[in-house]
Amino acid sequence: MSIRPPTALRQLVDMSRRLGAPENDYVILGGGNTSAQIDEQTFWVKASGAALAGIGSEDFVQVRSAPILELVEAEEVSDELVKRTLTESCVQADGPRPSVETFFHALLLRLDGVSFIGHTHPTAVNAVTCSQRAEEALSGRLLPEEIVVCGLAPIWVPFAESGIALARRLRQLLADYVDRYRRRPRCVWIQNHGLIALGGSPQEVESITVMSVQVARILVGTYALGGPHFLTDKQIERIATCPDEAPRLDQLGLTPP
Ligand SMILES: [Zn+2]
Predict the structure, then answer these.
(1) How far is the CA of 114 from the centre of ligand 1 (A)?
(2) How far is the CA of 148 from the centre of ligand 1 (A)?
(3) Which CATH number fits the domain that encloses residue 225?
(4) What is the pLDDT of residues 39-83, one digit of tens each?
(5) Between the N and C ends of the chain, which has fewer C-beta atoms within 10 Å?
């Protein structure tokens, strides 16, 4: 008799399969990874090397947050310590190895209102992140619905090696972001790498991903006609604080930022 996985894990598996569906072009091969909070101490994260398309509950690992976060905050870490911590943080000792990106998942799942994370490498998003003018392209907002779904601004992360280096870079940028905007981010764009969507539900993660992909396509189009025309700060602030947007947030499965 098979045992039904708990709800968060079932939702995570379904979300991961949709993010990994080949027709979306969000990931290829074993690329991308996903996670879900389980309780105060632990979370599920994709096992290293598993492909999102057709993924099963056996391809997720339950990991303890504390040792992972301790390493993200440490001064100096060796490759050996990173490897050992990844192994020792697993609740089940003889299971598969967690993704090397487990570090940023632990960091972002700690934020208020974040219980699911989807990290993908969409071709459209990477057409922007791999461009000479990526930072400029991401410095403004193009669409009212982009602000509603993806927030006031994404975090832009200059290239860092996957794993602990990326998580440590992101930790500093996250602190700067919260200082500046007084709210948590909804998405992270990583130079020469891809996208991270943060949500309170799988639907939220998927809405942020699909909207980011549309923004990326539009951005590339704008450079054919002289570059993006961004909304003004005043327009952005009005949209972000408009009470009429509350039903829209609800419909999209979004939590207020
Ligand atoms: Zn990646």
Answers:
(1) 19
(2) 25
(3) 3.40.225.10
(4) 999 999 999 989 999 999 999 999 999 999 999 998 888 999 999
(5) N
Sole residue written with tokens 């001064």? 75
Q: Are strands 33-37 and 42-46 parallel, antiparallel or unpaired?
A: antiparallel
- Residue 188 C-alpha to ligand 1 middle, in angstroms? 12
Instruction: Measure 161 CA to ligand 1 centroid, in angstroms.
Output: 10
Containing structural domain, residue 206: 7-251
In the reported structure, the alpha carbon of residue 35 is separated from the centroid of ligand 1 by a whole-number distance in angstroms of 13
What's the CA-to-centroid distance between 163 and ligand 1, angstroms? 9
Q: How many domains does the chain have?
A: 1
Residue 232 maps to a domain: yes
Q: What is the pLDDT of residues 93-132, one digit of tens each?
A: 888 999 999 999 999 999 999 999 999 999 999 999 999 9
**Res 237: pLDDT:** 86
Q: How far is the CA of 2 from the centre of ligand 1 (A)?
A: 32
Cα of 7 from ligand 1 centre, angstroms:
25
The whole-angstrom separation of Cα 109 and Cα 202 is 13
CA of 170 from ligand 1 middle (Å) equals: 14
Span from the CA of 195 to the centroid of ligand 1 (angstroms): 8
pTM: predicted TM-score of the whole model, two decimal places: 0.93
Residue 183 lies in a domain: yes
- Is position 11 within any domain? yes
- What's the CA-to-centroid distance between 5 and ligand 1, angstroms? 26
196 falls within a domain:
yes
